[in-house]
């Protein structure tokens, strides 16, 4: 199922992330794609806040993956910058514990194929009026009902 939304500003992007983050759980794999400046890190920050993990969520530019422990007893958030990974094999080499964490991959398209049969892909595009168009595509039973309809 593919869902669309228009996000008018950075605050709304973060807010969308908070709602999504509240509903994520261990085993979830979320992939963010979109050009530089699209709003991937802004959305990631909201997701971290909604999930309740220790921040700050920033672009993981100097490390390939950063683990943010939960502030409660929820799953940690593993934030991956796949832009610096050359191939899916390198992502595989990170040996991430997908079962125990929420894994969030920026620039992950084409890098995560085959890692999980269930993932949520979020594609962000910048419109001429500087709003963002967000396309959500979930695969597997986990996302069969979509993301937007179940509220949050
Ligand atoms: P990315 O991680 O994709 O490179 P960032 O999350 O760093 O992008 O955001 C880039 C810039 O775009 C930020 O300054 C952010 O405030 C701005 N921005 C403007 N409008 C929006 C919007 N609707 N959603 C998200 N970010 C936006
Ligand atoms: Mg970024």
From TrEMBL:
<keyword id="KW-0067">ATP-binding</keyword>
<comment type="function">
    <text>Required for the formation of a threonylcarbamoyl group on adenosine at position 37 (t(6)A37) in tRNAs that read codons beginning with adenine. Is involved in the transfer of the threonylcarbamoyl moiety of threonylcarbamoyl-AMP (TC-AMP) to the N6 group of A37, together with TsaD and TsaB. TsaE seems to play an indirect role in the t(6)A biosynthesis pathway, possibly in regulating the core enzymatic function of TsaD.</text>
</comment>
<dbReference type="GO" id="GO:0046872">
    <property type="term" value="F:metal ion binding"/>
</dbReference>
<dbReference type="GO" id="GO:0005737">
    <property type="term" value="C:cytoplasm"/>
</dbReference>
<dbReference type="Pfam" id="PF02367">
    <property type="entry name" value="TsaE"/>
</dbReference>
<keyword id="KW-0479">Metal-binding</keyword>
<keyword id="KW-0547">Nucleotide-binding</keyword>
<dbReference type="GO" id="GO:0005524">
    <property type="term" value="F:ATP binding"/>
</dbReference>
<keyword id="KW-0963">Cytoplasm</keyword>
<dbReference type="GO" id="GO:0002949">
    <property type="term" value="P:tRNA threonylcarbamoyladenosine modification"/>
</dbReference>
<comment type="similarity">
    <text>Belongs to the TsaE family.</text>
</comment>
<dbReference type="InterPro" id="IPR003442">
    <property type="entry name" value="T6A_TsaE"/>
</dbReference>
<protein>
    <recommendedName>
        <fullName>tRNA threonylcarbamoyladenosine biosynthesis protein TsaE</fullName>
    </recommendedName>
</protein>
<dbReference type="InterPro" id="IPR027417">
    <property type="entry name" value="P-loop_NTPase"/>
</dbReference>
<keyword id="KW-0819">tRNA processing</keyword>
<keyword id="KW-0460">Magnesium</keyword>
